[in-house]
Every structure is written in structure tokens, then in C-alpha cells.
Amino acid sequence: MLDYKLLEALVVVIDQGGFERGARHLGLTQSAVSQRIKLLEARLGQPVLVRSPRLAPTPLGRRLLNHAQQVRLLESDLLGEVPALGGGEQRLRLAINADSLATWWPEAIGRFCEEHSVLFDLVVEDQEVALKRMRDGDVAGCICDSPTPVQGARSHALGSMRYRALASPAFVARHFAEGVTSEALRRAPAIVFGPDDRLQHRYLAMHGVEPPFPHHLCPSSEGFVGLALAGLGYGMVPERQAERELSEGRLQEIDAGPHLAEGRLVDLSPGQVIDVPLYWHHWRQGGKVLDALTDHLLRLGDAWLTPLSTA
């Protein structure tokens, strides 16, 4: 049988990103946490962590993290059904892309949190790499662009996020005075979210432009739009992020939002969009709260995202 105190040390060290922060979280000394990890490895006969060049779980460590994640969720179900065992907060650790977090996720999930009294521990990852967090056993669910689930998990289509190439009028006047040509795109600085972000590459490929190309890196959805508004570059912005809010408190799908309507941003290629499919992944044995969250997302997905193309 596993010693769950030892397993907890592994989980916390990975969650907190190091032995020192993990020890602080557990209220132990760093030496005590290190001893627990070493004892776990001694009992299993193989390492569970790679300590350099950066801290990461081994294949066995990933399997143990997967197990611990699911046990934690199932224990939450049990605590809800057997009050004598004592209460405890319900937490879900999820990986979500920054653009979803900046647009549809907060409003789509608000009522669920109230009804189920659940707290989220959100890990922000690009939609192309969030699935790695599931594979590593770091999260119980994730939103990513791949329909293929990892072993022991399920995936469901949610819809697409639609992106448009936007820039400020001043930027367009400086860099695209003769039109949005391939040559102009090769010279104009773009804005890219991070090294895993390939949206700009896809847009440029549609215009016959291959990397490398000049670009700013900005790992913030709000900062991304801010740089575009300031005229530092052009970039692929979620259509919903440029929409206006109605007085009823929900967003309406329209062709131009406040930044566009006010002339603060312009569309470089009107009618040309990139749709990024989003899929919800979760563990099969994730407990009632994770199942309820899945039902909630599938029920509301069409209200917040563009329907997936069937072509």
C-alpha cells in the first residue's frame, strides 16, 4: 500500500514548483520533505523526480500524480456524503488557456462555483500544450486544442475561439500604407503570446510568409491587446475580446467591438479569421464535482464559443 504522506510530499513539491515552497506549504522543513521523497523512491525502487535541469516527475512520478489527483477528487465526494469524516474545501486544479480565461471562462463558470462551492486552482497554459499537464498528472482537467485524450481521460468538443488580425490605425498607416502585402507582413512587427503560440504563424502562412519574422513576446491576454492599442505591433486577437458587452450582462456575437467600433483597432484582413477548436479533457474517475463541471461546460459551450466547423 502507498504511504499517502509520502505521496502528498511528491504532489506538493510539483504543485508548488520546488522543495522550499513545498515545505512551506506543508509546514515542514525542506529537509523533512526531501526525506519523504527519498523514502518514497526507496520503497518503490526507482526515482519519482528528475531534479535537474529543472524539477519534473519521472514516468513513474507522473503515474503517481495521476493517482493522487483522482484520489483527492474521490475523497471530496466521500466527505460530502459522510459528514462525520469532517468537511473540507473542494478544489479543482485545471489547465486553461489565457484567452479563454480573459474572455468566456469567468462568466461561463460563475454560477457553477456558487452552486457547488468549489475553488479552482488554475494553471495558465497555451491551448496547444495544456494537455501535457494532464499527461504529467498535474491537473484534473484542461482545455486544449487536441481531441485525443490521454490514457484514463475523456475529451469533449466545446467549440472554437475565433481570432482576427488587429492593429491600431497608426500602426497600419506606418506599416501597411500600400496594403497588407506579403512583403509588408515580413517587415512589420507582430505580437506573439509565447513560444508555443502558433496563431501568428498560421496567419502569415495564409499570406505566403514563412518565419522568421519580427515580433514582440507578450504572455498576457490583456497586455497583448494593450500593445496592439499602443501601436507596437499587430496580432491575432480573440474576436470576443473585441466585442462590446450588452446591458443584460452577456456578450453578443457581433462583427466589431468597442475597440473596432471606436476606430482604436482595425482588422487587417476583413472576413479572414482563424478558428481554434477547444476541447475539455477530464479524468474518467474524477468524482462527482468534475462530472458536474463537465455537464455544465457542455451545456453552455455554444453560448460562449463559435460552433465547431463540420467541414
From TrEMBL:
NCBIfam families per UniProt: argP, PRK03635.1
Taxonomy of the source species: Bacteria, Pseudomonadati, Pseudomonadota, Gammaproteobacteria, Oceanospirillales
This protein's UniProt keywords: DNA-binding, Transcription, Transcription regulation
Keyword DNA-binding: yes
Pfam families documented for this protein: HTH_1, LysR_substrate
PROSITE patterns linked to this entry: HTH_LYSR
Full protein name: LysR family transcriptional regulator ArgP
Family from the record: Belongs to the LysR transcriptional regulatory family.
InterPro entries to which the protein is assigned, alphabetical: ArgP, LTTR, LysR_HTH_N, LysR_subst-bd, WH-like_DNA-bd_sf, WH_DNA-bd_sf
Thylakoid as UniProt keyword: no
Organism: Billgrantia antri
Domain HTH lysR-type positions: 2-58
